[in-house]
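Working notes for the structural subgroup meeting. M.R. asked for a predicted model of this chain before we commit to crystallization trials. I am recording the input and output together here so anyone reviewing the notebook later can reproduce the run.

Input as submitted:
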Amino acid sequence: MSLSLYAATIPSYRQILGAVSGLLHKAQAFCAEKGIEAPEIIQARLASDMLPFAYQVKSTAVHSLGAIEGVRRGVFSPDMTPPPDTFAALEGRVAAALSALETIEPSEVESFVGRDMRFEAGNRRLEFAAEDFLLSFSVPNFYFHAATAYDILRWKGVQIGKRDFMGRMRLKG
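Returned structure, recorded in token form:
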């Protein structure tokens, strides 16, 4: 059995975005329980030269739905808009990406195979086939940002574990 481009991307995007949504709920509950102001988590960074939690969450939407939208246009550029600055706004961004991903048909994603795709950031240009852009650029970025958001919450003391990161697995039956 061959694996389709759709199967290699969209279901995993949805799985991990669902998990990120759950992480946001746990972070918000943690803040309420501990009397912590939300910006302490939302603006938290693992290192001074890394971007904050809010950026990491935003980037899970950018490298899932945003990547698909980029392939549709034939070009993807980094989203330079400021990340949402409240838990509700972060949840809204994730929910919107999840909702849009649920409407994508497998046939559309399969039609991307072999299509020219370009990454543009400032003067930097990288040329890809669409499937290579998704699988070698956006999917790794997607997981990097999801894992970094998870790591920030663990570092701040939110009681989460691997199952919280993995989300709802796609079990047989």
